[in-house]
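User: For my dataset I need records formatted as: sequence, then structure tokens, nothing else. Please produce one.
Assistant:
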Amino acid sequence: MKAHLNHWILAICAGCFAVTVSSCGMRLGNRVEEGDRSPGSTQFNSEIQKWTGLFDAAPVRLEYCAKTQAQSEPVCQIQNDLSKIPLLISSVITRPVGFILLDPQNGDGLLVNRDFDLAYDSGIPVALAPESGALSALATTLNNALFLDPDCQYHYRVSGTGNLHLETTPEIDGYPTKGRYTMDWTSTLELEGVTCSSTLIKMQACLQELMDCGGADITENQILQSQAQKYFDPYLTAGVLSAAEVGDMATVFYKISY
């Protein structure tokens, strides 16, 4: 699944404020005051220039976790192949990753891909503490129907804490950088709806047997099975969840560290 800018509907970050992507435009005023961070001030513009840019973002850890209703604790497995980071995160946190400081007053910022290409890839709203470079985020994607069931909606809740480190760093693939990006992310699949339990059971049957996917023919069954796989294949491959456990799933999530 490729994430797009308008898929992020909510971000609640450090300092008890909210960021919505639809209101991320910079506010530039005419009043200029030295020593403050009001829009248009020298300090306001200086902070934007200081922090906005590209930062080296090297993934160092990927872990998949799953928990069934019968389990008291999730089963987790660290992955050696860091190229398999899901697109929800990897389409944004490229190497290097771009950061845009939108408002130094409250720390509103946006993580974007290295080309700053908001037309095609998502930007994840984050909060920056300009004094320290600390980052934090809690964002949720838009709801979508799970396995074509309009009464069972799913979304991804993504949270993270980290830092931007201003320091001398080399170019990466021809991109000049101004420091390092470090952050720990957790992305959780969340379900809402009265029919989610029965939908998970249908997905389990489809994952176990193609002809049990409920399609009109083999082509439709293949499409349905592919849809079921996109949610659970990483967890099945990691060995933290089996196809026979999907119907009893309580939660699945992954963790990424940069």
